[in-house]
Amino acid sequence: MKIDLTGKVALVTGASRGIGKAIATGLAEAGATVAVHCNENVLRAEAVALELGQRACVFQADLASVQACETLVANVILEYGHIDILVNNAGIARFVDAAAPTGAWLQAWEQTMAVNARAPELLCRLVIQHYQTRGQGRIINIASRAAYRGDTAEYMTYAASKGAVVSLTRSVARAYGKDGITAFVVAPGFVRTDMAQDAIDSYGEAFVVQDLALNSLTESEDIAPIVVLLASGLADHATGTSIDVNAGSYVH
């Protein structure tokens, strides 16, 4: 089976590193033109876009800002004329001690929900309006195993935000399937990324791996092929589904 995304434009949020970079690379290798979104890591994103080729460009936006989300979609459409694939990958995970004051918890809650839940829904709304003019489009939202099995006390807010992403995706699939719009969830487990490095450094890789059914940590490159498949249209009848990529940590 050969996946050919030539002529397709994919907007990948948080594409300057980690899972987002791997997804952007996989899409570009399949022929897609990738809009490389970043927030602060502009230089790193520019290096990614240069590596991808295929007319890839960098689009900077702080997804905590509603206006920035709107501008992001508008600028991608202005640059390429259309969007075919949206990958909502960008996210943050704020550590909040269970005994932290309410004010500290509230700040972390609002930041997390703005980036992890509100931005994906707003970006979905914006691209859906665009997709409806074209008669089709695909959305892949990156959630987490935490949406299903929960997380530690310090990361309850993160887990809640990723649970929202799952419900959002299923709602999009149910509401817009007749418009030719499909939506999917990919839910990674613990993945070796910069964001996860603090936990690896704190507890050791062996501690993390013991929670898995396999002998090694999931890598960012393990996520990309599934996203490319979902973006291709070959799995459209799986719309609304969630695909776990967590090295069997549910069943271990």
Which residues sit in consecutive blocks of at least 5 with pLDDT less than 50? none
Question: What is the average per-residue confidence, as pLDDT, rounded to a whole number?
Answer: 93
Separation of the first and last Cα atoms: 31 Å
Give, in spatial order, the strands making up the sheet with the most strands.
3-2-1-4-5-6-9
User: How many extended strands?
Assistant: 9
Largest sheet composition: 7 strands, parallel
Descriptive report:
The chain contains nine helices and nine strands. The protein has 252 residues and is an alpha/beta fold. A seven-stranded parallel beta sheet has the order 3-2-1-4-5-6-9, with helices on both faces. Strands 7-8 form a two-stranded parallel sheet. The longest helix is centred in the middle third of the chain and has 33 residues. The protein is globular, with a radius of gyration of 17 Å. The two termini are 31 Å apart. The model has no long low-confidence stretch (mean pLDDT 93).
Task: Name its key features.
alpha/beta; two-stranded parallel sheet; single chain; globular
Short characterization:
This protein is of the alpha/beta class and 252 residues long.
Task: Write the topology of this structure.
Elements lengths: L8 E4 L5 H12 L3 E6 L3 H11 L4 E4 L5 H15 L4 E4 L13 H33 L2 E6 L3 H4 L6 H21 L4 E8 L2 E2 L4 H7 L1 H5 L8 E2 L4 H9 L9 E4 L7
Parallel strand pairs: 1-2, 1-4, 2-3, 4-5, 5-6, 6-9, 7-8
